[in-house]
Design goal:
There is one protein chain. It is built from 16 helices and ten strands. It has helices at 6-17, 33-46, 74-87, 107-111, 116-133, 155-175, 197-213, 241-253, 268-277, 286-308, 320-331, 347-351, 354-364, 372-386, 392-410, 416-424; strands at 25-28, 51-54, 95-101, 137-140, 182-186, 221-223, 230-231, 234-235, 257-260, 281-284. The chain is globular and about 75 Å long. The termini are close together.
Length: 426
């Protein structure tokens, strides 16, 4: 059975809304091979299409330094995802999605204050590898700008850069004979506020005009801020049902879906609101990485008990806790999720504070999963547990599944692929 292109799948989602059978897709940050396995096993059992949303920091071209997740560039990422699907026995639809592609979207490019021309060229070359590797959806996000710190980038600038990048991607895609792809766009960074309906409509209208002049496709998703905001390991935003519904209704008028970011750690009631609000898709990323970290730390506690009881020799005990903690804190990638005065603390100050170190490990352990020393300690932990009839990796995969299943249930994803295929006649 051939895969449904993501832009057509979303059309089917919008059509299902009229019959009350719609759902909300989840975009999953691909934090590790374990998360891929957990997701595909659930997709196999619940008949929904995973969207894997990779930022440029997480997955990118080797010439830009690849990504911190598993050292993936786009090609290795696509290959490992295909292998994970096969290993899980999943033969359904899934989508590789570029999350926050665009100029200055790699931390080092923004920190270096690259000139606009250079930043735009790097964005184009990253998109080129995305398309050649088989990505299905590209987020065109020109809302980061080191020359506009603390300011909202003018809408006309966002619009111009968005159209320029879509035009380049479409021209290049056609020249290379690659399949059609979907696009995701947005008006501003997600920061916990709300996108006003007037601004949302103005952006869509202007975008439609400019894309029409160039015979370019409308995007598949347009991001709108619904009040979600993730900080530390909590949802600290204030979800606005009415605003979300108004944005979703407006997006459908133009044949596109409303995409929501920062949807981590939402409670059941808020997730259930997404169905009558008609949110087409929501992104969840750091939460699933945190769940994997928590699974490892639970296994470390079990290992310690086995050592204390003399079942595992002390000299063979893993040092995963300290290794993961040190590497995670030294990445400093956790800073954007912090709040208050702790955001400015130095690494050594944090390492000297046991409570704060534990909190940051909970938040940021996944940033260090790809480190070789960390992987060695995980293997050592697994071996000690396996010798005592505990399958550590299976526990980790099942632990990650728990919060994903919460979203599948509340967002009514069970059977969505079959429902979409039916309405599309596919």
């Amino acid at each position: 059975m051939s895969q449904i292109p993501i832009q057509r799948f979303v059309k089917g989602m919008l059509d299902l809304r009229d019959s009350g059978e719609d759902a909300t897709l989840i975009g999953i940050g691909p934090m590790s091979p374990n998360l891929l396995q957990a997701t595909f096993e659930l997709a196999r059992d619940h008949d929904f299409p995973p969207m894997f949303i990779a930022s440029r920091n997480q997955v990118d071209s080797d010439r830009f330094g690849a990504g911190y997740v598993n050292g993936w560039d786009q090609y290795r990422f696509a290959s490992d995802i295909r292998a994970a699907a096969d290993a899980a026995g999943y033969g359904g639809d899934y989508y590789l999605c570029r999350d926050h592609g665009g100029p200055w979207q790699r931390d080092e490019e923004r920190n270096a204050h690259l000139p606009e021309d250079e930043a735009m060229e790097k964005a184009r070359q990253s998109y080129l590898d995305d398309m050649k590797a088989g990505f299905h959806l590209l987020m065109i996000d020109p809302t980061k700008d080191p020359y506009q710190i603390g300011k909202v980038i003018p809408l006309d600038v966002v619009l111009a850069r968005t159209v320029e990048l879509i035009e380049w991607c479409e021209k290049t895609r056609k020249e290379l004979g690659l399949p059609e792809i979907g696009y995701e766009v947005g008006t501003e960074e997600t920061n916990g506020g709300l996108t006003s309906c007037d601004k949302y409509r103005a952006f869509i209208e202007e975008l439609k005009v400019e894309l029409g002049k160039r015979n370019l496709p409308m995007p598949t998703f347009i991001v709108g801020q619904t009040g979600t905001l993730t900080r530390m390991t909590e949802q600290v935003g204030h979800y606005d049902f009415k605003n979300a519904r108004d944005l979703a209704v407006m997006a459908k008028e133009y044949g596109v879906g409303l995409k929501e970011h920062n949807a981590d750690y939402l409670d059941d009631a808020t997730l259930l609101e997404h169905i009558p609000a008609h949110v087409t898709a929501s992104n969840v990323a750091p939460q699933y990485g945190t769940e994997e970290t928590r699974a490892y730390l639970k296994l470390v506690k079990v290992e310690q008990i086995l050592v204390d009881e003399g079942v595992v020799p002390g000299d063979s005990q893993s040092d995963l806790y300290n290794t993961l903690l040190g590497h995670a804190i030294r990445t400093e990638r956790w800073r954007k999720w912090m709040v208050g005065e702790n955001t400015a603390l130095g690494v050594e100050d944090i390492l000297a504070d046991e409570r704060l170190s534990r909190d940051i490990l909970d938040l940021a352990g996944h940033y260090a999963f790809g480190d070789e020393e960390v992987k060695e300690q995980i293997a050592k932990l697994y071996a000690n547990l396996s010798a005592n009839n505990i399958d550590g990796r299976r526990f980790v995969v099942e632990h990650i599944k728990r919060p994903i299943l919460q979203y599948i249930t509340c967002l009514r994803l069970d059977g969505i692929t079959s429902r979409v295929r039916r309405v599309l006649g596919a």
